[in-house]
Amino acid sequence: MGKLLRIPEVRRIFFALFGLEACLVLLHLAFAVRQPSFSFHLERLTSLRAEQNWPTWFSTIQLAAIGTIAFALAGEAASSLARGGWRFAGLFFFFLSMDEACLFHERVGRFFDQNFGPEGAHVLPGGLGAAVEALSSRGIYPWTIVMGPPLLLAGLLLLLGLSQGLRPVPGAFSTAFLGIVLMAGSQAFEFLEGVAVARDARLTTEVFVVVEEFLEMFGATAVLTAFYARRKLVSAASPTTETIPVFDAAQTATPITPASLAGYRRQVRRYGMPSR
Q1: Helix (H, G, I), strand (E, B) or coil at 191
Q2: If we measure between CA atoms, which residue out of 153, 159, 214, 224 comes closest to residue 183?
Q3: Burial class of 113 by CB neighbour count within 10 A (0 to 12, 13 to 18, 19+)
Q4: pTM, whole model, 2 decimals?
Q5: Mean pLDDT per 10-residue segment, the chain (276 residues)
Q6: Gyration radius of the chain over CA positions
Q7: 3-state DSSP: the chain helix, strand, coil percent, rounded to 5?
Q8: Is residue 252 part of a domain?
Q9: How far is CA 147 from CA 36, 105, 239, in A?
Q10: Would you say residue 258 lies in a domain?
Q11: Which of 12, 81, 150, 196 gets the most CB atoms within 10 Å of its CB?
Q12: Residue 78 in domain
């Protein structure tokens, strides 16, 4: 990451996003955790545990920005394989952005738990429903059981593609790798959060919430930094070839001489003033 931060524009973007994430954590601690009497209902907007508030909107925009840069890189890739890899990366992060915005993982987990658990209308065969219920009772959220394996496989394929796509920029792949590992590793703290909730350990729960959400946001920032550095390199290496025509009067205008002026006067007397 240090090599990427030597680029002034990349460094400004990184520290701007990092500062916003630090502010979101401080707002969570100030309002959602302490819950002062003068909060003016800001605890709902600033809570890292809640959905559809400032932290969620920040993550939604950041993940969508990563997807947008990935599709821009796909349009400038040299081979069809590279284009496919960048498009896959764009779809992956757009899916994560959509998930943050509409709580897709929560809906999937709730549907799975209600319809395929032991208490649901359709019990999974072979005792899988009982296994799911046992895991849920120990703090594992239902959505991680359903969506965890596909997301893990998609993340591995993403890293495989990025190992080639980010190779031209020194430090870009290691930064993106760190970001994806942090985003995936944050789910371990979500599991610990569920265990703490089950044990009614409020302070421990808040610690796990802050660590999980910060790692998730910071991981996305690292990926965004790597993608943006790659995009900047492509733009610098492919300058536009279009030129704007410039009128140079010294080169294109016909010089006025006494002979040409006399000829112009004769044409005016014979044919009249030229029409515009």
Answers
A1: helix
A2: 214
A3: buried
A4: 0.77
A5: 87 96 92 72 84 92 97 90 94 94 80 62 56 63 74 91 91 95 87 70 80 94 96 70 47 61 69 57
A6: 29
A7: 75, 0, 25
A8: no
A9: 37, 7, 42
A10: no
A11: 196
A12: yes
